[in-house]
Inverse folding.
């Protein structure tokens, strides 16, 4: 066992830490992209911030090396999706990958009816997770049960829809822009909308354009990432952890850095006027995040997560 551990350690290539935003293509899983990034960057320390369904595309943020330790501090509760919904057809998976289970033979609703129905889905609502999902029932992923033809009762979950914008209306299709909380299933939203309209519906396509602080204009295609890795320029394109965190920044050196290495608290310096509870990125002279700290009522910075002195 020790020899195998040393071999794994030797396979790790030292390098920069940060975040990489990949424009995930359809037909590949989020874990497939993580495996790609491990090869591109020569490290096992890669994690993603929020799974995308295999047929969905768009923003898939990846944390690289020590940035994986900062994932809990990244604001990732808000997502933005562009989806295409087909009215009049229901499928067992609630999307275009499934088998058709019902067709609507009557007239489809007009734009005014659709917009009136959409208004009822804004705000805090409950969704029942779909059977074709990674949600577990008694330790078993629902999608495994679904493939065995088993349908089980699922507990509804509270989600938040901040905004719903109808961006295209060409029956039987319509396009929606959805601003929502993490945990929202746009497939379920499409199905529920179809039922509210009395005609049924399914999700035909889905693209995530934002996830927390990460946006589609920061995303690189898989081909671009592979080419950059081949040219040894991909690490230079990583988004710095301090930028992704979005916290006030305090630069330290010398004795302050040594104190931080041992988990000690620090003077807040120019940040002393910030309210207690403010989180701060503590960085070195090169801008590398050394720790995340929180400003206490005593105006001292207390480390929540120290990265220096830890393996990447």
């Amino acid at each position: 066992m020790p020899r195998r551990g040393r071999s794994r350690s030797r396979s790790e290539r030292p390098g920069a830490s940060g975040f990489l935003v990949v424009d995930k293509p359809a037909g590949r899983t989020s874990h497939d992209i993580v495996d790609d990034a491990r090869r591109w960057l020569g490290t096992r320390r890669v994690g993603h911030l929020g799974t995308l369904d295999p047929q969905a595309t768009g923003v898939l943020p990846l944390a690289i090396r020590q940035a994986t330790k900062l994932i809990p501090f990244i604001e990732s509760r808000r997502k933005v999706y562009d989806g295409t919904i087909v009215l009049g057809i229901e499928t067992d998976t609630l999307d275009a990958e499934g088998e058709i289970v019902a067709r609507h033979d009557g007239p489809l609703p007009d734009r005014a009816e659709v917009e009136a129905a959409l208004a009822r889905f804004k705000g805090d609502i409950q969704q029942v997770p779909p059977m074709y999902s990674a949600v577990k029932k008694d330790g078993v992923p629902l999608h495994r049960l679904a493939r065995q033809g088993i349908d089980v009762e699922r507990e509804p979950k509270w989600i938040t829809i901040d905004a719903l914008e109808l961006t295209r209306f060409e029956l039987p299709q319509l396009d929606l822009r959805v601003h929502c909380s993490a945990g929202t299933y746009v497939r379920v939203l499409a199905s529920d909308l179809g039922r509210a309209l009395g005609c049924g519906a399914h999700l035909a396509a889905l693209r995530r354009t934002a996830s927390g602080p990460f946006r589609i204009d920061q995303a690189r295609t898989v081909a671009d990432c592979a080419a950059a890795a081949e040219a040894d320029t991909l690490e230079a394109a990583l988004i710095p952890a301090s930028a992704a965190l979005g916290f006030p920044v305090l630069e330290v050196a010398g004795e302050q850095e040594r104190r931080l290495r041992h988990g000690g608290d620090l003077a807040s310096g120019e940040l002393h006027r910030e309210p207690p509870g403010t989180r701060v990125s503590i960085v070195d002279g090169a801008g590398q995040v050394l720790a995340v700290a929180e400003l206490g009522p005593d105006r001292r910075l207390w480390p929540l997560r120290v990265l220096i002195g830890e393996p990447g």
Observations:
- The helical segments are 2-11, 30-41, 111-119, 142-147, 186-197, 222-230, 241-245, 254-261.
- Residues 30-41 form the longest helix (12 residues).
- Confidence is low (pLDDT under 50) at residues 1-10.
- The longest strand covers residues 157-170.
